[in-house]
Write a structure and sequence with these properties.
Layout: E1 2-7, H1 17-34, E2 38-41, H2 55-65, E3 70-77, H3 83-97, E4 101-106, H4 113-119, H5 129-140, E5 161-165, H6 168-177, E6 181-183, H7 192-202, E7 214-222, H8 226-244, H9 258-262, H10 264-273, E8 277-280, H11 282-296, E9 300-304, H12 310-330
Parallel strand pairs: 1-2, 1-9, 2-3, 3-4, 4-5, 5-6, 6-7, 7-8, 7-9
Helix pairs in contact: 1-2, 1-12, 2-3, 3-5, 6-7, 11-12
């Protein structure tokens, strides 16, 4: 079982998007040295605290700063884009960096309704996601000389495609196409058990994948003590609370009293949404990760963690890598 990183390229309060991008490249290099398998980044829009809106551009920067770790999108929100354009972008990445580029595809807009309108101006509201996924995969497969349009570069690169989701829809689609499936359990875990069951049950082997491949997303905030990790976690608790309140901003600095900051009722809702998490000391994080792996039996775990201080964030992913190695040895 592999373990990987999902990086939202967070922009902490007191810093800039340029700082965040430099930190992402530094974290990717750090992750490569720790044995992480993939380094994924996600498309979000209209969010001052996330700097990965131009996802393929930033992935090129990260891929250029690393050597062996897989680099990819977790994910590209395909309805925002023409499939040909995404095929050309990721075909370019694969041409430059070889067989270490991944392409995860999501169906959401990556923002609110205003983003939906801005990104899809002039397009119909019809949901063509399955057809667009199929079209995109054709552009990345071997060239068909009869096809009126081909992706150059892109055609013949066979960039691996993943389906991302937080509902049963994505699980059914991934199973239908015979594609690997990554569930967004780090912020929307309610359908996790049903989605993983449906995906595995209904999976149809394809030319690229003979058996289901399920990825579990887990929040991780690790530090030397449980108390310090809980303190660091208050940054993402505040950020999630602000997002739910319609006031997203940069990643807040941690606080000692989270209830005083966002109120106990809102905190309970936030913590429920973020419940697929491992938070604490090295021993606590390893125990919590082991429990999640035993319960959900993922083929891969992808860890994400929004921590205000870059040094603390790197330390968290160091502890998490050591914890995952412990989990794998015990298994």
């Amino acid at each position: 079982m592999k373990y990987s990183i999902l990086d939202l390229c967070p922009v902490p309060e007191g810093s800039t998007a340029a700082d965040a991008m430099r930190h992402s490249a530094d974290l990717a290099q750090h992750a490569e040295g720790l044995g992480y398998h993939r380094y994924w980044m996600a498309e979000h829009h209209n969010m001052p605290g996330i700097a990965s809106a131009a996802t393929s551009v930033l992935l090129g920067h990260v891929a250029g700063k690393t050597k062996t770790i897989r680099v990819g999108a977790g994910g590209i929100m395909l309805p925002n884009h023409a499939p040909l354009s995404i095929a050309e972008q990721f075909g370019t990445l694969a041409t430059l960096y070889g067989d270490r580029i991944d392409l995860g595809l999501g169906r959401a807009p990556g923002g609110d309704h205003a983003v939906w309108q801005a990104m899809r101006r002039g397009r119909t509201g019809e949901d063509n996601f399955p057809a667009e996924v199929a079209e995109l995969m054709r552009y990345l497969s071997d060239a068909d000389p009869r096809a009126p349009v081909q992706a150059h570069p892109g055609q013949g690169t066979h960039v691996p495609v993943w389906i991302l989701g937080s509902s049963l829809y994505g699980a059914q689609l991934a199973a239908h196409f015979g594609l690997p499936y990554a569930f967004a359990s780090h912020f929307a875990p309610d359908a996790l058990e049903d989605a993983s069951t449906i995906y595995r049950r209904d999976f149809k082997p394809s030319a690229t994948l003979s058996a289901p491949k399920f990825m579990l997303a887990v929040n991780v905030v690790a530090a030397e003590t449980d108390g310090e990790a809980e303190y660091l976690r208050t940054s993402v608790q505040q950020a999630f609370a602000r997002l739910r309140s319609g006031t997203p901003g940069k990643l807040p600095a941690p606080v000692r009293d989270i209830d005083a900051q966002i109120g106990p009722a809102l905190r309970r809702g936030v913590d429920e949404a973020l419940r697929i998490s491992a938070v604490g000391s090295p021993e606590t994080v390893e125990r919590q990760l082991a429990a999640l792996v035993a319960k959900y039996r993922p083929d891969e775990v992808i860890l994400t963690g929004q921590i205000h201080n870059h040094t603390a964030r790197k330390r968290s992913f160091t502890i998490a890598a050591q914890a995952m190695q412990g989990v794998l040895i015990a298994a």
